[in-house]
Amino acid sequence: MAYKIQIPRNELIIRYVKSQNFPEGSGLTLDALPKNSHHVASLSEITEYCDKRLQTRSIADFPGAENGLQFQNDGEVTKIGAAVDAGFVPFEKAVQSNVNFLIVHHGMYWEPAYPITAMRYKKYKLCLENNLAVYGAHLPLDCHPEIGNNALLAKQLNLQQDRWFLEYKGTQVGLIAKNSKSRTSLKVGLEKLFPSGITAIEKGSSNPGKVAIVSGSGVSAIPELLFEKVDTLITGELKQHVFNQAEEFALNLYCCGHYATEVFGIKALAQEVAEKFQMGWDFIETDCPI
Asked: Which domain holds residue 239?
């Protein structure tokens, strides 16, 4: 009977195993795994890593956020995915990309979890049939000082972190950064970073020394700007009435898209996890214009 030994395609390991000189007639052969073979990690290890990295248990969030593992698979992970939303189409795209651990910013349970019918049933069925685990990270991935949406947005614009603000249940989720650019230069940088377009309401100073950053929805930040003495805000989306506040309180407001401002954190976390556990990852993109 012949036996085949499969090992990772690593030259040091291969040379070592070859040096063992399997005796002739033993039936043992050496076979290196292909270069594109998937490393396998346990679901529990990856979940624990994400929980610790984001401190999910210590950050209170909105009802329904359910940060952490939201849908488990059979316990093994071979490829990481990142998507802003836990929608049916992103799930389908993740499955097509062979992802079996999908990190999302807006998770599966913003609406009540029951009854499991219609589209909710289709989502659950898709996950079960394709061994897709889903991990949600909402506010913990907005406020993280290194791989959070606000921190990475500031880094993309070469803005230096100054302090955090906009408290929600004990956690400050918005970032205030130091700015040495003119308002015009700041807008140009945003237009390059968000090529799909931004909405600019420029009623504040032409050389803002501080810039507040709140990814996603920034409506709640407006009153805090006055308290913080910051007249410029970069966010995803605002409400119509905020235009009047911008005029009344002399504010610069830049709306760059809720979706667009929240791709940074999930990408960073997915890449970090993939490198940590030596596997591939994909960003599952949608054409959300909001």
From this structure: 149-259
